[in-house]
Amino acid sequence: MGETVLKMEGIDFSFDHQTVLEGVDLEIQKGDFLALVGPNGSGKSTLLKLALGALKPDRGKVSLFGVPLRRFRDWSRIGYVSQKANSFNRDFPATVREVVASGLYGKLGLFRRMKKEDWKRVEEAIKQVGLESLSRRNIGKLSGGQQQRAFIARALVSDPEFLILDEPTVGVDTRSVDEFYRLLAHLHRKKGMSLLLVTHDIGVVTTYVNRIACLNRRLFFHGDTDEFVGREKEVFTAAYGHPVQVVEHAH
Amino acid sequence: MIEMILHYGFMQRALAAGVIIGVVSPIVGLFLVVRRLSLIADALAHVTLSGVAAGLLLQKQFPAFQALNPMVSGMVFSLTASVFVERLRRLYRSYQELAIPVILSGGIGLGVVLISAADGFNVDVAGYLFGSILAVGESELWVIIGTGVLAGLVICFFYKELFALSFDEESAVLSGIPRRLVHLLFSLVVALVITASIRVVGILLVSGLITLPVAASLQIATSFRQALWLSVLFAQISVLSGLAAAFYFDWASGGTIVLVSVLILLAVAGGKRLIRPGSGKTGAA
Ligand SMILES: Nc1ncnc2c1ncn2[C@@H]1O[C@H](COP(=O)(O)OP(=O)(O)OP(=O)(O)O)[C@@H](O)[C@H]1O
Ligand SMILES: [Mg+2]
User: Fold this and answer.
1) Domain residues of chain B, as ranges?
2) Chain A nearest C-alpha distance from B198 (Å)
3) What is the pLDDT of residues A161-177, one digit of tens each?
4) Relative orientation angle of helices B9-34 and B179-201, to the nearest 10 degrees
5) In whole angstroms, what is the distance from residue B180 CA to residue B186 CA?
6) Residue-wise pLDDT tens digits, A222-232
7) How confident is the model at residue B281, as a pLDDT?
């Protein structure tokens, strides 16, 4: 058994007396690729924010790489692409390079400037998401899918061991979605990265992930993909309150 | 000719003050504009007015404060207010700009009350309202130099943190950037720069010097670095024109500086449409 990347135990959370999460236990081992699914408003993004310490749970414990969140400081081991990444100011004067580089700033720390090798890492991350020809373009002038890839490059540039993505494929065309999942599969298999992906593409994702968690206030399923595939109707009916059409992509 | 101009001590001081302010104001302005906080400059300038009035009042009432430069009390007031702006901003998550009118009207109100309580000063309050670059005194120049050095250091050392926080605050914080510290230092720098700029452009026009060169640079810059250099360039052109106009024609320096900035903005926006027709940001879809 490998290292535990993320461990959440007995998480309760509410926004102004409205209970959003109840008794959630989530665990991600090193090398896992977990898909977190659930209907709108089921608390997926909230759970990620709790995992990252942006929100504090009412009850329960969170630890990252075996360290309680309170004491965790190694933020560069984690990459995060927020669901709202795409709602930035379109007229912001910044190139793709500048935005991707900002993913390194936390790791560099105060008082350290970008060096040549840091810029090389920036170029590599941009290449990894296939944006090298656009690296000096203004980020606001890119298409939605290209912007999304730039944000993934920003999360990848610090070479994280654990990547957290909140609905990264919204607004991305079908071909780019497939390409995007292949990139994630590559990071997972070749680089041994652990991934936590929030998504609504349930059908597509079962081909890539090895773990699935289904959330609607509490967890309705948390286990291996193989086990899930046989029980998906029953899990979805319980979690969504009605059966869910699982759309498979033609490959 | 330049030698002749620099023969005058007041011209040397004016030039030094103008160049320093023309570098730091647009840089601070760029970070404010991209975070949609450019009106903070206005709010803090008006708070400075009440600080200046308080200083003048102290001078008048208590001989012990004769040596106090009203710019210093102005600075104390705007530093305090800048900390409050950050607090107020956190109080209203989605109406962050609400902090600005609160501070602005509070500052003006207090300033006006203090001025009326003093029943007239023997210095010209208008000099603070509209600025007069040729009247920069020796002690004021030192305040401006100190501000320039401090602002330069904070921006150099925290450039990457400021950029990351301006572009995407949530991700920046989650990547481990100390938001509070950086915001606090930056708001203190904003307050210092605004107070220092008042001598050059005046309370009523400070926000023009802080935002107009940035507005022009945003029309054409693709990268943040470009926006930075262009806004400094535009600000320098404006400040030097204002200085020349004040020296040769006795025009108000602050007014000239802001007018030249407006002309640059119009020229840049117009030139952009000429070169790339249809690429302008027209807003209407
Ligand atoms: N800042 C907030 N203040 C108050 N309530 C909130 C806030 N953010 C989210 N909520 C509430 O918490 C619940 C869970 O929201 P969350 O964003 O975690 O859902 P989600 O599963 O990510 O949904 P989606 O699939 O639409 O992204 C929702 O009912 C929402 O109304
Ligand atoms: Mg969400």
Assistant:
1) 2-275
2) 28
3) 999 999 988 777 777 78
4) 140
5) 10
6) 988 888 888 88
7) 47
Cβ partners under 8 Å of residue A29, min gap 6: A1, A2, A3, A4, A5, A194
CB < 8 Å to B174, chain A: 52-54, 75, 78, 80
Show the domains of chain A with their CATH numbers. Answer: 4-240 (3.40.50.300)
3-state secondary structure A148-198: HHHHHHHHHCCCCCEEEEECCCCCCCHHHHHHHHHHHHHHHHCCCCEEEEE
Residues whose CB falls within 8 Å of the CB of residue B11, separated by 6 or more in sequence, listed in order:
B5, B134, B247
Q: In this structure, which residue's CA is closest to atom 10 in ligand 1?
A: A15
Q: What ipTM score was computed for the predicted complex, to two decimals?
A: 0.88
The fourth-level CATH superfamily of domain B2-275 is ABC transporter involved in vitamin B12 uptake, BtuC (1.10.3470.10)
pLDDT surpassing 60 at residue B285: no
Cα of A39 from ligand 2 centre, angstroms: 9
**Burial group, residue B169, by CB count within 10 angstroms (0-12, 13-18, 19+):** middle
